[in-house]
Amino acid sequence: METDGGGATSSLVGDGEGSSSGQVRWRSNAMYQFTQQNLPACKPVLTPLSVITTFFLLGIVFIPVGFISLHASQTVVEIVDRYDNECIPNKFRRNKEAYITDETISKNCTRHLKVPKYMKAPIYVYYQLDNYYQNHRRYVKSRSDRQLLDGLSYNHTSSCQPEEFNHGHPVVPCGLIAWSLFNDTYSFSSGRHELRVDRKNIAWKSDREHKFGKHVYPINFQNGTLIGGAKLDPSIPLSDQEDLIVWMRTAALPSFRKLYGRIEQDLDANDVINVSLLNNYNTYSFGGSKKIVLSTSSWLGGRNDFLGMAYLSIGSSFILISIVFMLLHLKNPRPYGDTNYTSWTWKGISS
Known about the structure:
By secondary structure, the protein is of the alpha+beta class. It has ten helices and eleven strands. A hairpin with a 2-residue loop joins strand 4 (about 165) and strand 5.
């Protein structure tokens, strides 16, 4: 019994040692093949026929995709109205900055928008700013993501200068981005009926839940001598201040749109929408412009003809290239594997 047990034990040990050494040899062999580039790989040969066929098939695929994308974009109904010039009294036409900085002058304005086609809910309301460089390096740096999440428990906010402190007390949220928060407001009506604008869930869910603190409240915000934009309700946490969350996601281009809300009601063609707005935001000092946008959406998103046009142009180019290559190949065919075309047979090199 003992001999059998010992033999079995030694056999198991031997098998274990053999398997482990085999794994080591397999790994070392695989590493050698990898470092010496001896691994099997696909090496396609680009013959004239394969190149022409590839370009032609890509063109055949891209062109229908372009037509589908362009059609989806064209189905989006969009109303764009620039109001920054129209909402200035006549006597301030030549001095717009004096108008926008004078708090004693009423900033109320009414615009009338006609619906060109039937607009199915939800209808997205955007404000559009042009010539506004939110991607400026100094502007983008002027914020503290840790403070937005942790509040006053995080006090390393030197990046927020010059909007870090106000009268010696910390500002929450700090920085130029929050300080310049957009503060024009809109209300809508059609005939005698008010169009309710849903302003909830306009920001990214990830931003609301992970980037802005649920127990962080505005402190000492917009209390200085120079007011940049909108004020924040100090009784509402930053995670629920969705206008701020939308604004803090800075745009990459000087012309951009940001979501203001949604109208959860269908609009018929030729309806007239009355927009009552407060023209508060100062875009006149830097030559910017303000627009209000009402837009539906498709499966592809908002209206954007660029994607469809890009697919059409690239697909057409591919088909044109395939035709040119085919004509060249028919005119001057090159036999596959012809050594006369190799570099070492050229007379200029051999001599």
